[in-house]
Amino acid sequence: MKLITAILQPSVLVPVKLALAEQGVKGVTVTDARGRGTQEGKTEFFRGQTYTVEFVDKVRLEIVVTDETVDAVVANVADAAKTGEIGDGKIWVTDVLSVVRVRTGETGDDAIN
């Protein structure tokens, strides 16, 4: 099993969610995040003052999938989230050693399907 973590622009959350639903991915955790990467923040103007926002708003998606589906899910998320602009985000994959569905006691792939 694999954990897919994606840090994306908030504006692409709905298209990504719809793309995952079409693919049959049911379990997704979404949290608000703030960060910076290549874009290194941004400059804004407010009431005649200039200030720098070092960390920009992002969303963090976490999706646990089977080893067989990981590449397709990553490609699907990347395709749905791509705007072609700086700040589109990052996706990474890590190993998951075990999963337990609390309600039923199912483990492994059965717990995520």
UniProtKB/TrEMBL annotation:
Family annotation (InterPro entries): N-reg_PII, N-reg_PII-like_a/b, N-reg_PII/ATP_PRibTrfase_C, N-reg_PII_CS
Protein's organism: Gulosibacter faecalis
Family: Belongs to the P(II) protein family.
Coiled coil: none
Protein name, per record: P-II family nitrogen regulator
UniProt cross-references to Pfam families, sorted A to Z: P-II
